[in-house]
Amino acid sequence: MSCLQDEKNMKVIICRLTLNPKKNSDGRGLELGFDLDESARVKLLNGYDDISLTLLNEDKITEFERKNGIA
Predict the structure, then answer these.
(1) DSSP states of 13-46
(2) What is the residue extent of each domain of the chain?
(3) Distance in angstroms (rounded) separating the CA atoms of residues 4 and 51
């Protein structure tokens, strides 16, 4: 969920944010598209942060450390 502010009436409008397709809708017919780079979209869809993305490669990191005498 996200919010938009109706500048004219000074009301907060609750909106539904979808990432596939990338649009924002208030449920009353207002739909706004938005730009989002693919890496940010993947992070949001999967709940990833930078650490969890790094941990996706944990096996490769461990192998690299083993081969290079780091671990």
Answers:
(1) EEEEEEETTEEEE-SSS-EEE----HHHHHHHHH
(2) 1-35, 36-71
(3) 31
**Whether this model's pTM surpasses 0.85:** no
Mean pLDDT of the chain: 76
Q: Which residue from 40, 39, 5, 36 is spatially nearest to 21, judged by alpha carbons?
A: 36
Q: Are 25 and 15 spatial neighbours (Cβ–Cβ below 8 Å)?
A: yes
Specify which residues 69 forms β-bridges with. none
Output phi, psi for 37, to 5 deg: -65, 155
Q: What is the mean pLDDT of residues 30-51?
A: 81
* Residues sharing a CB contact under 8 Å with residue 33, sequence separation 6 or more, in sequence order: 21, 22, 23, 24
